[in-house]
Structures are given as C-alpha cells and as structure tokens.
C-alpha cells in the first residue's frame, strides 16, 4: 500500500510538471503606437516626420475636416514611397464632420519609408516619414588640418542611441576604428546623444571620409565628415608659384634686353659709318668743285 501511495504521489508530481511545461502562457497584446494628423481643407499636403527607434506596430491616422458640402462619405487609400498599397482603399464615412482614415503597419528595418494617406475626391494628403533619427550636422566642406596636429570630428543627435561607432571609409568599404588597438592615433568620446572622434598625430594618409554611426534597435543612422590633411608647405605653394613666375618673367626681360643691346650698337655704328661716308663724299665733292673753279679762273 505504501509503495502504491508513493508511486501515486510521483505520478501526480510529474503530471503537474508536464502540465506546467505544455500549458501556453497568456500572450500580451502587442503595443501599438498611434500617430494622428489633422488635415483641413482640400488639396492640402502635410508631411509628418516620425523617428523610429525600434521595430514596432504603428497606427497611422488621418483626420480630414472642413470639406466643402460635407458629403456622407469619401474614398481614401494608402501609399508607400509613392506606390499604392494593395487592398488599402476604403470608404470613409462622415462622423461629426470628420473623415478618419487609419491603418496599422508592422515596421521593421525594411519597412521604413514614406507612408501617405490620400483622399481621392479632394486630393488631400498626409505623408508620414518613418525613419531612424537623422544626423543633420553634415558639413558641406571638409575639415582641414595639418600634419602633426590633432583634429576633433563630432556628430550629434536629438535622440540617444544604444551606442556610437566610428568608421573610416576605404573606397566602397568601411573599417571600424578600434581605439584599443590604436591608442596613439584615435580617441573616442561618447556622451549620450553626441560623440567625438579625436585623430592624433595627423599624417596625409589620415585624409578621407570618417563615418559616425548611431546604433538603434531597428537600424543604424549614419553621417560622415570629410577630413583633409595638408603639409605645412601647402599654403605656401600659391606664393611660391607667384614668385617663380615673377623670377621667370624678370629673367626673360633681362635676356631680351641683353640680346637686343648689341643689335642697337651695330645699328648705331652702321648709321655713324654711313653719316661719316656721306660727310667725306660731300667734302671731296666740295674740293673738286673748288679746283674746277680755280682752273676756269686761270684760263
């Protein structure tokens, strides 16, 4: 009897464990984020930017008001990146002078983009721009520094990412900057929504594109800074070029003057010789004329 009782207890115990393992746990409903935009009047286009940090289900809602004549219903549909979403068209009934068109989207990295609700009758449109936060501090001109110096490159965001990474672009690829492996060349500072990269002991090989990457759960947000490293003689090159041009020009002028001077001397000598011969000829002619007159007088 005791053995049967012990086996019965063991049977109940393992049955209870099996029940716990096979019984499904209650699933909680997914959290849905709602974004609402009110559009007033017709032919109006509204753009709403939404920062997406994590994969999520998001409900986009368009509330259209102030429609002339207030028809009992209108037709609305959704597009993604300009392409109409299949089976998204629906009839929107008037409710308290409003027309509400809404749809829930499951957003992963590949689903980011521009989602628009469009009402056919009056071409009212609301565009939701779903993307990771954009690093807007992009420089149009490169950062210029000189060999042997240090330079600080920085990026900043409105939102705080999970972490920051820095890369150096190499043609079509990018290499992760490892501060631990290169402590004499790089230092990285991170403070929540901003990061700074210090490049030490600059050489001309450090020139190039540096990429800062804010890492979010859904995908990273990247920006870049162009660095140009010059030698200290680089600013002197235009001045040196001007000096060389002046020296060449002065040399050519002196050479031209030197080559021209003997020609002038020869010309002057020729002119002097010609004038002397002319004077000699005139004198001889004068003597002959005087001699002839004397002979005539003697006769």
UniProtKB/TrEMBL annotation:
Chain segments carrying region Disordered: 278-299
Gene Ontology terms for molecular function = cell-cell adhesion mediator activity
Q: Which residues form the signal peptide?
A: 1-22
**UniProt-listed InterPro entries:** Ig-like_dom, Ig-like_dom_sf, Ig-like_fold, Ig_sub
**Keyword rRNA processing carried by entry:** no
- Give the keywords, sorted: Immunoglobulin domain, Membrane, Signal, Transmembrane, Transmembrane helix
Entry's Gene Ontology cellular component terms: axon; plasma membrane
- Which domain of life does the UniProt lineage start with? Eukaryota
Membrane-traversing stretches? 238-256
- Mind telling me which Gene3D superfamilies this protein's record contains? Immunoglobulins (2.60.40.10)
- The residues covered by the Ig-like domain are 26-127, 133-231
Q: Name one GO biological process term.
A: dendrite self-avoidance
Which SMART domains would you find in this protein's record? IG (SM00409)
* Record PANTHER family: BASIGIN RELATED, EMBIGIN
Name this protein carries in UniProt = Embigin-like
Source species, please? Sinocyclocheilus grahami (Dianchi golden-line fish)
Instruction: Give the gene name.
Output: emb
């Amino acid at each position: 009897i005791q053995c049967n009782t012990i086996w019965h207890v063991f049977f109940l115990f393992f049955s209870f464990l099996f029940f716990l393992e096979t019984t499904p746990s209650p699933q909680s409903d997914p959290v849905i984020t709602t974004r609402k935009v009110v559009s007033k009047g017709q032919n109006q286009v509204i753009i709403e930017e939404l920062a997406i940090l994590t994969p999520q289900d998001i409900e986009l809602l368009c509330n259209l008001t102030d429609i002339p004549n207030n028809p009992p219903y209108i037709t609305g549909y959704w597009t993604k990146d300009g392409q109409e979403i299949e089976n998204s068209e629906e009839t929107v009934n008037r409710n308290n002078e409003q027309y509400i068109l809404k749809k829930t989207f499951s957003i992963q990295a590949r689903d980011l983009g521009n989602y628009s609700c469009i009402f056919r009758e009056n071409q009212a449109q609301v565009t939701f721009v779903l993307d990771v936060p954009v690093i807007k501090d992009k420089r149009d001109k490169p950062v210029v520094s000189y060999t042997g110096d240090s330079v600080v490159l920085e990026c900043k965001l409105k939102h705080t990412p999970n972490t920051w990474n820095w890369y150096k672009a190499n043609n079509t690829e990018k290499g992760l900057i490892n501060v631990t492996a290169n402590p004499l060349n790089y230092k990285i500072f991170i403070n929540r929504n901003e990061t700074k990269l210090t490049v030490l002991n600059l050489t001309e090989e450090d020139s190039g594109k540096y990429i800062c990457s804010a890492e979010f759960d859904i995908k990273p947000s990247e920006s870049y800074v162009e660095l140009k490293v010059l030698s200290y003689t680089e600013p002197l090159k235009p001045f040196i070029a001007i000096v060389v041009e002046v020296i060449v020009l002065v040399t050519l002028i002196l050479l031209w003057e030197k080559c021209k001077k003997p020609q002038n001397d020869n010309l002057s000598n020729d002119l002097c010789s010609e004038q002397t011969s002319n004077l000699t000829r005139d004198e001889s002619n004068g003597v002959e004329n005087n001699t002839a007159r004397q002979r005539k007088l003697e006769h």
